[in-house]
Amino acid sequence: MVAESYLILWASQTGSAEWIAKNIHTEATQRGYKGTCVLMNDYEQSTIDTAGVIIFVSSNTGDGDPPDNALKFWRFLRRNKDKDYFATRHITLLGLGDTNYSNFNNTVKRIEKKCKELGATVFYDKGLADDAEGLENVVDPWIEQLWEALPKVLATQGPIESSETSVEQLNDMLKTTTIAPEAEKPDPYSMKGRKTGLPDGVEKYLDLPNSLIEKKAEEPGLEGTALTLDYSGLVPGIKLTGLPKASAPSIQWTSLAATGSSSVDQVPGFVVTPTPIVYAPISSVKCLTTEDAVKRTLLMELQVDDELNFEPGDAFGVIAPNDEDLVHALIRRLAPSVTEGYEALHEVKGESLPTHLQKATSVTMADILRYGVDLTSSPRKALLRMLADHTSDVDEKTRLMYICSKQGLAQFNAVRDQTPTLLDLLTTFPTCHPPMSRLLDLLPPHQPRYYSMANSPLKHRDRLQFAFNVVTYTTTTGIHRQGVATPWLDRLSGTAPFRNSSSTTTTTSTISDVKIPIFTRPNNAFVLPKDTHRPLILIGPGTGVAPLRGFVQHRQEQRLIRQKIGGLGAHPKRDIAKEFGAIHVYDGCRDPTKDYLFGDEFAGFVKDGTVASVRLAVSRPQQGTKAYVQDLIKQDGALLYDLIVNQDAAIYICGDAKGMAKGVNDALAEMLCLHDPQLDALAANKRLMDWMAAGKYLRDLVSGNKAA
Ligand SMILES: Cc1cc2nc3c(=O)[nH]c(=O)nc-3n(C[C@H](O)[C@H](O)[C@H](O)COP(=O)(O)O)c2cc1C
To answer: What positions does the domain FAD-binding FR-type occupy (predicted)?
Structure first.
């Protein structure tokens, strides 16, 4: 039965909120409700003026900021002064956030507050999902209960399905499950039983000169790693509840009956970026850490056109393909043949295509697997549920269903902890043969990786430097994993030798002539104050110091320019000092002999007067007590209070959102309370929030992202 209409307004930075919003819409439609699902920034094309029920779904970016595709809507909402604008409207909200960030789910909280001010009534409490714990934990039950709340607020009610499935029912389902025909076909390119040579059609992909994709020649190629999971809770007769519903197929993977070559040197045209892609050669690389340091950190320099606009504090995106060995192995597993996987052109079709596939009108499977979908981050329950539908062996199918169920939560968490690639999942469940269309429905979008610029354009107009840790880690079950972009960049730059512990001199390496596809991403929320008289307090341990180095370089160049202009009088040094506020840097490392990233450079900044002081917090000293940046801030409370409150210093924090940013925030609040007896903890935190809003306290934070 068709009910009154609802409006879903969604905003998403990396695709999860988009996927969830569209799924809610699909399910609502299946349940007989009528409504629309619209991107927040396209609100003008929606029924916002008349919709009785609005469901907001949004993630966050930056420091509790709305996603880019919500900014226009957010401005519209904020400027709206009509207290009755939403007077007859009923709203609910689903936020996707991460408790690693201090402004947890700030976007939906702010939207809710503003909508209430404009007269809206909340018909169902908002859901605040946490990426740190697994979005499903909140999203799935929230959506389940939405189907109870929605009919009450709408005029009529759609049918509500039960999500209980028993093992016996699964057996019945198996009888009707269609398994992709490829499952039974022998793989003509398999190396099994071959003594020499490579499978037909593979050789030509092995030696691509100047390619973005580095193909390894060894065959049979990458093997997946089967996951370690415990199914002892899966006892006969167990009722599996809380299973995600089998999501409706919405994407078609249609053959164009034509072939084309894979875009090995260029990012394929379907990849959408906010600013144009620029191909930048690597001009130098240096490893900033010693071999025995916990992390391998590189400083890379790209050569760019001097027309490229960037300011210190800006970031840029790198479009790195998924690992080619992984892509190749998946093609062998999923495509009818390896040649077809690399050459057969397809169109991605569907009514409401996700943003990342909307331009995929003529693509190969290889390109989709390289640049279209995320193959390496922890799987969603809905993906596992879909894989179960395409698994022929009853035990494997049951296990997959168990992992998705409420009863199998511990095993779902065990899957997440092992961060399996798609290949690992298919290896763990060998009779699983999902069609490409369903994978496109359920795999998240492949993401560009963002890095902060570590240099000033005043120093090098045509150079772009950035520092990053090469992401490799071992899971609790002992599987060695690596990120996508950082190991790729490391390889392309010739795996620079480690820093020698006794010096920080540049090391050379054999750099590939591959050009790195990048696009700029201005960061208006992390900029130097225009007024150079204002002192700066720069806090950034680890790679967080990189953009701060860009700020300091900028100030150093500004000082030189000022000096060159002349007219400074009898005491040029003193006059210059008057023009530029003092800079105090708070840096941190584990052990200065191993991973103090820009030690020499900052010593130089102090020497030439650009920086007033550098305080280094050492968390794993060979001798003495360990310290974090927040400890040093507490020690320097009186100095910092004077700088911040009396001299209007601007505070910059860059780095880890979790421990460091929270610790520094607490230390600043404590410092305020100590030096201003009128402030209690609450008022001190409120003052910090006000400073954030006023652009005096700026933060550029990241949560530990394994997929970098
Ligand atoms: C750069 C960045 C900044 C983020 N900032 C916040 C934040 O301030 N508060 C929060 O609750 N979540 C924050 N998140 C977490 C996202 O909201 C969360 O991961 C969400 O699931 C992403 O959904 P999306 O794919 O729809 O963008 C941030 C994530 C990233 C990558």
So the answer is: 275-529
